[in-house]
Each structure stands twice: as structure tokens, then as C-alpha cells.
Amino acid sequence: MILHVSVMQPMVSTPTCSVSHTPPFVFHHVFSKVYKDRHFSCEDCDGTVSGGFDAATSQIVLCQNNIHQQAHMNRVVTHELIHAFDHCRAHVDWFNNFRHLACSEIRAANLSGDCSFTNEVSRFNFGLKAHHQQCVRDRAVRSILAVRKVSQEEAQKIVDEVFDSCFKDHAPFGRIPHGNKDAKFAYREYMNRDRYYANL
Amino acid sequence: MEQLAERAWRPHQACEDYLSEFRHCRSFRNHFHHYYTYGTAPSCQQWKEDYHNCRKWESHKLAEAKDALQKSERRRLEEQKNFTPVWKLRQAPPGDWHRPLD
Asked: A41 near A59, Cβ under 8 Å?
């Protein structure tokens, strides 16, 4: 069984919310399609939040008033799709289990391009050696604080507890996609998967 | 009959794909990303060995080449799963994934 969530079609753009063509986003295990009009919602949001995943409705929310550039939109869509993927493939207890929440936030920050060198520099976070991991930790803590009433120390502690496990979980890519070539090779590996398991 | 089946085995990807992975691994861009992520240089030698083993199998059907390639791929797969999951995986997607919204 293959979970195939694919956001394939170029999105219709409205005056306030425009989503570009996103390459096929592939989930393992069970076929389950993502439909633009059912699983995405463009809304006005408070503060500086860019988007979110609502597990209760299986819907990705995109904050049309806080996303102004296509690259940002691409990144937010990828980030939220990773949450949707985790929701689809695992029993994630979003509301009661902070470890689950932290794990998905670590994965989303790690795999969506949130913590790319360029993005960090644009935030004036200048770091090089293994800085990606520090960024992932920090952004995971921020994301938890944005949605749950916990202290900074508590959020940090939970992230530290699950970081080693969740940072290594690169599903569905099989690697951290730092750029288009990584994404292309990850997709190629996905397309070869049947041949792969048959020939091991 | 068994020998025929043995010789019919194909690597899981074209040999050129192993070569392109090796070249990509060795690129400056990948070195930069790897250092930025892990603080170390990437190790690319395995891709090159896999490429050579792939070519040896395709050209001469050497059993050692096939074994080495399979071993390498299994190791790569194990490395990808080298962590204790925080959650339990589902057998099917959530029942309400396509439930109509009110």
C-alpha cells in the first residue's frame, strides 16, 4: 500500500492567496490524496503566523495576510504538508502528547527549507558549522510556544528529549532536501521503490 | 533454471544513477550543506563503489559484485531507519481525512 499525497496541479491564484505548483509530495504506505479545495484553506491570521495544520479537520491553513513571496509560500506549504504526512502515517496525538508535537515540528523545520543557510542569514542568524541543527531546535521550540501554553524551558526540554530521534527521521524524502537536486534524487528513489524492495 | 533467475537480477537503479549520486555527493554545494547540517564533510566513497559493482554486475554478472551492492543498499536502508520512533505508525490513513467540512 502506498500513501500518495500529491499536490500536483498549478494552484488557482486569488487576489490574496496564491499557491504555486508544488512538486509531487509523496507519502508512503496508503493511497490518500490531498485536494486543494478540501485540504487547504487561505485565511487571515493573527500576528506573524504563516500557517498551520488543523488535525481536527485534516486541513492546512495558509495565512494569506502574512505570506507575501512565492518562495515563502512554497516553504510554508512544504512545512505544513510534513505535518499532514505525519498525521496520515502515524498516530500523532497533537493535543495531549507534546513529544509528538515536538517531533513533527522538528521534522518540519528540518525538511522544509525553513533552516536553510539563506533563510537563517535573512533572519540575521549567522552560523555555519552544524548551525542547521541549532536552527531546527530553535524553530521547533518557537512553534510549540505558538500553539501551546508551556514555558520556554519546558518546550526546550521536550525538544531536546526527542531531537535525536526526530532529526534522523527523513521520511518521505530519505534525505534532507537542501535543494532541487536533492529533491529530484529523492523523487527518483521513490519512483524506484518497487524495484528496490524486490531486489534487496 | 535457478542460474537464469540469478542472472536476471537487476540493481535497484541504473548504474548511471549511482554515478550521478556520487557526483552530487562530491559537489561543492553538497559539501557546504553537509557541513552546515552536520559540521563534517560528507562521505561519498560508497556511491563510487556501488557504481563500480553495478557496472561489474551488468557487464560480467559477478556474484561478488551483486552481493556487495545488495549489502550496501541494505546498509543504506538501515541507516535511514536508525532511530527509535516517537510515535506508532498507522495501518491506514485517518478515517476522517476526506470527511466533508461543515
From this structure: yes
In a domain? residue B74:
yes
The answer to whether the CB atoms of B36 and A128 lie below 8 A apart is: yes
What distance in Å separates the CA atoms of residue A64 and residue B45, rounded to the nearest whole number?
46
Contact call for B87 and A30, based on CB within 8 A: no
| Interatomic CA distance for residues A173 and A193, integer angstroms | 12
**Is residue A169 within 8 Å of A85, Cβ to Cβ?**
no
CA distance B69 to chain A (A): 9
Query: With contact defined as beta carbons under 8 Å apart, do A60 and A80 qualify?
Result: yes
> Going residue by residue through chain A (200 aa), what tens digit of pLDDT does each one get?
222 333 322 232 222 333 333 333 444 444 567 888 889 999 999 888 899 999 999 999 999 999 999 999 999 999 999 999 999 999 999 999 999 999 999 999 999 999 999 999 999 999 999 999 999 999 999 999 999 999 999 999 999 999 999 999 999 999 999 999 999 999 999 888 777 666 66
Q: Do B11 and A59 touch (CB under 8 A)?
A: no
b vs e for A145-156, b when ≥16 Cβ sit within 10 Å of the residue's Cβ? eeeeeeeeeebb
The total domain count for chain B is 1
> Is B3 domain-assigned?
no
| pTM exceeds 0.90 | no
User: What is the number of structural domains in chain A?
Assistant: 1
**B60 touching A (Cβ < 8 Å):** no
